[in-house]
């Protein structure tokens, strides 16, 4: 009777028939291989006498998988390792993502070519060839909307390339027309081309301000207007500079051969395109643009006075009298 009480004191059965007595633990400990610590109780109790939740504890290592003890049955369950397919699935997913991105990008570019750029190209053509006497109806809000959509759809680089290519082609046509112009009309025709181009930029640059702000300035570290001015300098002005500069110098030496407003517009335009061109004819550019010559120094005042007297003599000899000197005060005679 006492032996039965001893056994019942060491082996206790909970509601789920989990045996957690000392003898069972001793029996389990005797089956553990050497080098492996004794397992903890399979069904430890929590305060209050309630049995703990079932837990799966690793039993022993095995080359075919890990063995676990089921708290309900007390039997061992094996988890057999299966081949790892994660690398293959990742590669397949990467291929699918790349393919889908390529197709979406191709569809976006096709939409740009069919819907956005043709409208922008037509508007640019109308702005480039406009005449001051003609009224051109252009929706600047619509153009700005197309530019905004192109930039938001990651077509900034493509849009900038198309814009510069379009304007370059136009400037090449302008240069060809100037080459066919008579020499005596080259200054006037160059002034018309330059003035018209500058007027077009005043319309083109504002509607492309979104492209300028989020692509040209931020990524290229440049400015749209400066780039477009450089295109005119490269494809028009520089092509005709060797013929244009001698004509300007000659016209400057012969007053009123060319209208003063035309001379001032061409000279100032050339200086705005490339200031270094002023060094080709400093006397010409200094007549229309200040601070071309070095600053005045006191030691050269007599030279400046001699130049002024020489200029006055030349003007009087060419039919520009000094006017009536009879009423000049005697105290001012020199």
Automatic annotation (TrEMBL):
InterPro entries referenced in this protein's UniProt entry, alphabetically: CACUL1, Cullin_N, Cullin_repeat-like_dom_sf
Domain Cullin N-terminal: 117-273
Composition-biased stretches (Basic and acidic residues): 324-334
GO-annotated biological processes: G1/S transition of mitotic cell cycle; ubiquitin-dependent protein catabolic process
Region ranges (Disordered): 1-92, 315-334
Source organism, top-level taxon: Eukaryota
Pfam families from the UniProt entry: Cullin
GO molecular function list: protein kinase binding; ubiquitin protein ligase binding
Family the entry assigns: Belongs to the cullin family.
Protein name: CDK2 associated cullin domain 1
Organism: Poecilia latipinna (sailfin molly)
Upper lineage: Eukaryota, Metazoa, Chordata, Craniata, Vertebrata
């Amino acid at each position: 009777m006492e032996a039965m009480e001893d056994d019942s004191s060491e082996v206790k059965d909970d509601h789920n028939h989990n045996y957690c007595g000392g003898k069972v633990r001793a029996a389990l400990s005797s089956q553990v291989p050497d080098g492996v610590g004794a397992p903890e109780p399979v069904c430890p109790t929590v305060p209050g006498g309630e049995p703990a939740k079932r837990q799966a504890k690793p039993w022993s290592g095995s080359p075919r998988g890990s063995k676990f003890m089921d708290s309900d049955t007390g039997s061992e369950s094996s988890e057999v390792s299966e081949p790892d397919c994660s690398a293959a699935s990742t590669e397949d997913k990467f291929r699918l993502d790349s393919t889908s991105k390529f197709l979406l990008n191709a569809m976006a570019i096709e939409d740009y070519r069919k819907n956005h750029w043709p409208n922008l190209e037509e508007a640019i053509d109308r702005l480039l060839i406009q005449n001051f006497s003609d009224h051109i109806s252009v929706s600047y809000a619509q153009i700005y909307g197309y530019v905004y959509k192109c930039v938001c759809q990651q077509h900034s680089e493509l849009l900038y390339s198309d814009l510069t290519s379009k304007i370059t082609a136009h400037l090449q046509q302008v240069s060809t027309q100037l080459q066919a112009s008579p020499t005596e009309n080259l200054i006037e025709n160059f002034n018309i081309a330059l003035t018209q181009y500058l007027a077009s930029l005043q319309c083109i640059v504002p509607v492309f301000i979104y492209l300028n702000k989020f692509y040209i300035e931020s990524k290229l570290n440049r400015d749209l207007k400066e780039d477009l001015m450089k295109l005119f300098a490269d494809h028009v002005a520089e092509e005709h500079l060797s013929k244009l500069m001698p004509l300007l110098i000659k016209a400057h030496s012969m007053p009123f051969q060319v209208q003063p407003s035309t001379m001032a517009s061409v000279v100032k335009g050339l200086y705005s395109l490339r200031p270094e061109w002023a060094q080709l004819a400093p006397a010409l550019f200094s007549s229309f643009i200040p601070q071309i010559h070095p600053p005045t120094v006191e030691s050269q005042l007599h030279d400046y006075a001699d130049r002024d007297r020489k200029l006055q003599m030349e003007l009087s000899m060419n039919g520009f009298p000094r006017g009536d000197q009879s009423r000049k005060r005697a105290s001012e005679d020199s």
